[in-house]
Design goal:
Mean pLDDT: 92
Shape: globular
Number of domains: 2
CATH class of the largest domain: Alpha Beta
Structural class: alpha/beta
CATH architecture of the largest domain: 3-Layer(aba) Sandwich
Bound molecules: S-adenosylmethionine
CATH topology of the largest domain: Rossmann fold
Strand order of the largest sheet: 3-2-1-4-5-7-6
Number of helices: 8
Radius of gyration: 20 Å
Number of strands: 7
Distance between the termini: 61 Å
Order of helices and strands: HHHEHEHEHEHEHEE
Length: about 230
Protein backbone atom coordinates (compact mmCIF):
# COMPACT_ATOMS: atom_id res chain seq x y z
CA UNK A 1 0.00 0.00 0.00
CA UNK A 2 2.77 2.40 1.06
CA UNK A 3 4.69 1.45 -2.10
CA UNK A 4 1.69 2.12 -4.35
CA UNK A 5 0.96 5.53 -2.69
CA UNK A 6 4.59 6.45 -3.07
CA UNK A 7 4.51 5.45 -6.75
CA UNK A 8 1.41 7.58 -7.40
CA UNK A 9 2.93 10.59 -5.59
CA UNK A 10 6.19 10.23 -7.53
CA UNK A 11 4.29 9.88 -10.80
CA UNK A 12 2.24 13.06 -10.04
CA UNK A 13 5.42 14.97 -9.20
CA UNK A 14 7.16 13.89 -12.42
CA UNK A 15 4.08 14.75 -14.52
CA UNK A 16 3.65 18.17 -12.96
CA UNK A 17 7.39 18.91 -13.34
CA UNK A 18 7.25 17.95 -17.03
CA UNK A 19 4.08 20.02 -17.53
CA UNK A 20 5.60 23.07 -15.82
CA UNK A 21 8.72 22.71 -17.95
CA UNK A 22 6.59 22.47 -21.13
CA UNK A 23 4.59 25.57 -20.17
CA UNK A 24 7.84 27.41 -19.40
CA UNK A 25 9.29 26.42 -22.79
CA UNK A 26 6.07 27.34 -24.58
CA UNK A 27 5.99 30.74 -22.86
CA UNK A 28 9.62 31.38 -23.84
CA UNK A 29 8.96 30.26 -27.40
CA UNK A 30 5.80 32.38 -27.62
CA UNK A 31 7.77 35.41 -26.39
CA UNK A 32 10.50 34.69 -28.96
CA UNK A 33 7.93 34.37 -31.77
CA UNK A 34 6.32 37.68 -30.77
CA UNK A 35 9.73 39.39 -30.71
CA UNK A 36 10.55 38.05 -34.18
CA UNK A 37 7.29 38.93 -35.90
CA UNK A 38 6.77 42.33 -37.57
CA UNK A 39 5.38 45.09 -35.39
CA UNK A 40 1.62 45.36 -35.05
CA UNK A 41 0.00 48.44 -36.54
CA UNK A 42 -0.83 51.10 -33.88
CA UNK A 43 -4.54 51.03 -34.87
CA UNK A 44 -4.68 47.25 -34.31
CA UNK A 45 -2.97 47.67 -30.93
CA UNK A 46 -5.62 50.22 -29.96
CA UNK A 47 -8.39 47.92 -31.23
CA UNK A 48 -7.03 45.10 -29.06
CA UNK A 49 -7.04 47.39 -26.00
CA UNK A 50 -10.59 48.62 -26.67
CA UNK A 51 -11.85 45.08 -27.25
CA UNK A 52 -10.42 44.03 -23.87
CA UNK A 53 -12.00 47.05 -22.18
CA UNK A 54 -15.45 46.95 -23.75
CA UNK A 55 -16.27 43.43 -24.86
CA UNK A 56 -17.07 40.17 -23.12
CA UNK A 57 -14.80 37.34 -24.27
CA UNK A 58 -12.06 39.54 -25.78
CA UNK A 59 -10.12 36.31 -26.28
CA UNK A 60 -12.09 35.81 -29.50
CA UNK A 61 -9.99 38.53 -31.18
CA UNK A 62 -7.29 37.13 -33.48
CA UNK A 63 -4.40 39.13 -32.00
CA UNK A 64 -0.91 39.91 -33.27
CA UNK A 65 0.43 36.50 -34.33
CA UNK A 66 -2.72 35.24 -35.99
CA UNK A 67 -3.34 38.67 -37.53
CA UNK A 68 0.15 38.56 -39.09
CA UNK A 69 -0.44 35.00 -40.35
CA UNK A 70 -3.74 35.97 -41.99
CA UNK A 71 -2.18 39.09 -43.45
CA UNK A 72 0.78 37.12 -44.85
CA UNK A 73 -1.43 34.44 -46.44
CA UNK A 74 -3.74 37.07 -47.88
CA UNK A 75 -0.77 38.88 -49.42
CA UNK A 76 0.46 35.56 -50.88
CA UNK A 77 -2.96 34.75 -52.37
CA UNK A 78 -3.73 38.34 -53.53
CA UNK A 79 -7.48 37.72 -53.54
CA UNK A 80 -10.00 39.87 -55.34
CA UNK A 81 -12.87 38.74 -53.14
CA UNK A 82 -12.61 37.63 -49.50
CA UNK A 83 -15.45 36.43 -47.29
CA UNK A 84 -15.15 36.42 -43.51
CA UNK A 85 -17.67 34.68 -41.25
CA UNK A 86 -17.39 36.29 -37.79
CA UNK A 87 -16.25 39.94 -37.85
CA UNK A 88 -16.26 40.44 -34.05
CA UNK A 89 -14.49 43.82 -33.53
CA UNK A 90 -12.87 43.84 -36.97
CA UNK A 91 -9.27 42.81 -36.19
CA UNK A 92 -9.01 39.89 -38.63
CA UNK A 93 -11.01 41.73 -41.31
CA UNK A 94 -8.48 44.59 -41.30
CA UNK A 95 -5.59 42.08 -41.47
CA UNK A 96 -7.11 39.97 -44.26
CA UNK A 97 -7.99 43.05 -46.34
CA UNK A 98 -4.30 44.04 -46.51
CA UNK A 99 -3.76 41.39 -49.21
CA UNK A 100 -6.66 42.40 -51.48
CA UNK A 101 -5.92 43.43 -55.05
CA UNK A 102 -6.38 47.15 -55.79
CA UNK A 103 -10.00 46.65 -56.83
CA UNK A 104 -10.59 43.86 -54.27
CA UNK A 105 -13.36 43.74 -51.65
CA UNK A 106 -13.76 41.88 -48.36
CA UNK A 107 -17.26 40.92 -47.22
CA UNK A 108 -17.55 40.23 -43.52
CA UNK A 109 -20.62 38.95 -41.63
CA UNK A 110 -21.55 39.08 -37.96
CA UNK A 111 -24.72 38.60 -36.01
CA UNK A 112 -23.73 40.81 -33.04
CA UNK A 113 -24.56 44.51 -33.52
CA UNK A 114 -22.60 45.64 -30.42
CA UNK A 115 -19.23 44.31 -31.55
CA UNK A 116 -19.99 45.44 -35.11
CA UNK A 117 -20.20 49.02 -33.85
CA UNK A 118 -16.56 48.79 -32.76
CA UNK A 119 -15.63 47.05 -36.03
CA UNK A 120 -17.25 49.87 -38.04
CA UNK A 121 -15.31 52.53 -36.16
CA UNK A 122 -11.91 50.84 -36.53
CA UNK A 123 -12.43 49.80 -40.15
CA UNK A 124 -13.38 53.40 -40.98
CA UNK A 125 -10.06 54.56 -39.47
CA UNK A 126 -7.97 51.86 -41.17
CA UNK A 127 -6.02 51.93 -44.44
CA UNK A 128 -8.58 49.51 -45.97
CA UNK A 129 -11.63 51.71 -45.48
CA UNK A 130 -13.82 51.43 -48.59
CA UNK A 131 -12.61 47.87 -49.25
CA UNK A 132 -14.63 46.17 -46.51
CA UNK A 133 -18.39 45.59 -46.65
CA UNK A 134 -20.03 44.63 -43.35
CA UNK A 135 -23.17 42.46 -43.37
CA UNK A 136 -25.15 42.35 -40.14
CA UNK A 137 -27.06 39.10 -39.59
CA UNK A 138 -26.78 35.33 -39.70
CA UNK A 139 -24.07 34.12 -42.07
CA UNK A 140 -26.18 31.11 -43.02
CA UNK A 141 -28.88 33.45 -44.36
CA UNK A 142 -26.57 36.07 -45.86
CA UNK A 143 -24.10 33.83 -47.76
CA UNK A 144 -26.73 32.43 -50.19
CA UNK A 145 -27.64 36.03 -51.09
CA UNK A 146 -24.07 36.93 -52.11
CA UNK A 147 -23.58 36.50 -55.85
CA UNK A 148 -19.78 36.44 -55.71
CA UNK A 149 -17.05 33.87 -56.35
CA UNK A 150 -14.60 34.17 -53.44
CA UNK A 151 -10.85 33.56 -53.66
CA UNK A 152 -10.37 33.39 -49.90
CA UNK A 153 -12.86 32.54 -47.13
CA UNK A 154 -12.13 32.80 -43.41
CA UNK A 155 -14.49 30.82 -41.17
CA UNK A 156 -14.45 32.15 -37.60
CA UNK A 157 -18.09 32.12 -36.45
CA UNK A 158 -19.98 29.77 -34.14
CA UNK A 159 -17.98 26.53 -33.75
CA UNK A 160 -21.18 24.46 -33.77
CA UNK A 161 -21.96 25.71 -37.27
CA UNK A 162 -18.58 25.22 -38.99
CA UNK A 163 -19.69 22.38 -41.24
CA UNK A 164 -22.85 24.24 -42.19
CA UNK A 165 -20.81 27.32 -43.15
CA UNK A 166 -18.52 25.07 -45.21
CA UNK A 167 -21.40 23.49 -47.13
CA UNK A 168 -23.15 26.85 -47.60
CA UNK A 169 -20.08 28.63 -48.93
CA UNK A 170 -18.45 25.82 -50.93
CA UNK A 171 -20.03 26.56 -54.34
CA UNK A 172 -19.16 30.23 -53.89
CA UNK A 173 -15.42 29.51 -53.65
CA UNK A 174 -13.46 29.82 -56.91
CA UNK A 175 -11.62 26.70 -58.14
CA UNK A 176 -8.11 27.00 -56.65
CA UNK A 177 -9.54 29.26 -53.95
CA UNK A 178 -8.85 28.91 -50.23
CA UNK A 179 -10.97 28.38 -47.11
CA UNK A 180 -9.28 28.90 -43.75
CA UNK A 181 -11.05 27.92 -40.52
CA UNK A 182 -9.94 29.13 -37.10
CA UNK A 183 -9.83 27.32 -33.72
CA UNK A 184 -9.77 23.81 -35.17
CA UNK A 185 -7.65 22.53 -32.25
CA UNK A 186 -10.18 24.03 -29.80
CA UNK A 187 -7.79 24.20 -26.84
CA UNK A 188 -6.78 20.56 -27.40
CA UNK A 189 -10.30 19.33 -26.61
CA UNK A 190 -10.48 17.62 -30.04
CA UNK A 191 -8.18 14.82 -28.83
CA UNK A 192 -9.86 14.32 -25.46
CA UNK A 193 -13.02 12.47 -24.58
CA UNK A 194 -15.91 14.74 -25.65
CA UNK A 195 -18.65 15.36 -23.07
CA UNK A 196 -22.05 14.42 -24.48
CA UNK A 197 -23.36 18.02 -24.16
CA UNK A 198 -20.25 19.73 -25.59
CA UNK A 199 -21.63 20.78 -28.98
CA UNK A 200 -18.75 23.19 -29.66
CA UNK A 201 -16.06 20.49 -29.63
CA UNK A 202 -18.37 18.13 -31.53
CA UNK A 203 -18.88 20.85 -34.18
CA UNK A 204 -15.14 21.29 -34.67
CA UNK A 205 -14.41 17.54 -34.74
CA UNK A 206 -17.21 16.96 -37.25
CA UNK A 207 -15.81 19.76 -39.44
CA UNK A 208 -12.20 18.51 -39.30
CA UNK A 209 -13.26 14.91 -40.03
CA UNK A 210 -15.37 15.96 -43.00
CA UNK A 211 -12.76 18.22 -44.58
CA UNK A 212 -9.91 15.70 -44.43
CA UNK A 213 -11.99 13.17 -46.39
CA UNK A 214 -13.53 15.65 -48.85
CA UNK A 215 -12.05 14.67 -52.24
CA UNK A 216 -12.88 18.12 -53.68
CA UNK A 217 -10.16 19.76 -51.56
CA UNK A 218 -6.67 19.41 -50.15
CA UNK A 219 -6.01 20.57 -46.60
CA UNK A 220 -3.38 21.08 -43.93
CA UNK A 221 -4.05 21.69 -40.26
CA UNK A 222 -1.63 24.43 -39.23
CA UNK A 223 -0.78 24.23 -35.52
CA UNK A 224 -0.61 28.00 -34.99
CA UNK A 225 -2.29 29.38 -31.88
CA UNK A 226 -5.60 27.45 -31.60
CA UNK A 227 -5.13 25.76 -34.98
CA UNK A 228 -6.02 26.95 -38.48
CA UNK A 229 -7.38 24.52 -41.08
CA UNK A 230 -6.07 25.66 -44.46
CA UNK A 231 -8.13 24.23 -47.31
CA UNK A 232 -7.62 24.60 -51.06
CA UNK A 233 -10.46 23.84 -53.44
CA UNK A 234 -9.12 21.71 -56.31
C1 LIG B 1 -14.35 34.27 -32.71
S1 LIG B 1 -15.34 35.66 -33.05
C2 LIG B 1 -14.61 36.28 -34.51
C3 LIG B 1 -13.24 36.88 -34.29
C4 LIG B 1 -12.71 37.72 -35.42
N1 LIG B 1 -12.72 36.98 -36.67
C5 LIG B 1 -11.29 38.12 -35.10
O1 LIG B 1 -10.38 37.36 -35.40
O2 LIG B 1 -11.08 39.17 -34.49
C6 LIG B 1 -16.82 34.91 -33.60
C7 LIG B 1 -17.88 35.88 -34.10
O3 LIG B 1 -18.83 35.12 -34.85
C8 LIG B 1 -20.10 35.72 -34.69
N2 LIG B 1 -21.12 34.74 -35.09
C9 LIG B 1 -21.48 33.61 -34.42
N3 LIG B 1 -22.44 32.95 -35.11
C10 LIG B 1 -22.67 33.66 -36.25
C11 LIG B 1 -23.53 33.50 -37.37
N4 LIG B 1 -24.34 32.43 -37.48
N5 LIG B 1 -23.51 34.43 -38.33
C12 LIG B 1 -22.70 35.51 -38.24
N6 LIG B 1 -21.85 35.71 -37.21
C13 LIG B 1 -21.83 34.81 -36.23
C14 LIG B 1 -20.12 36.14 -33.23
O4 LIG B 1 -21.06 37.17 -33.02
C15 LIG B 1 -18.66 36.58 -33.00
O5 LIG B 1 -18.52 37.98 -33.12
Amino acid sequence: MITSDWKIATCRLVCSTILNKMLEINKDIEKYILEHTSLEDELLRELTRITHLKVLQPRMLSGKIQGCILQMFSKMISPKYILEIGTFTGYSAICLAQGLTDEGVLHTIDINDETLEIAREYISRSNVVGKIIIHEGNALTIIPQLNILFDFVFIDGDKREYLEYYHTVFDKVAPGGFIFADNVLWDGKIVKEIKHNDRYTKGIVEFNDFVVTDVRVECILLPFRDGIMAIRKK
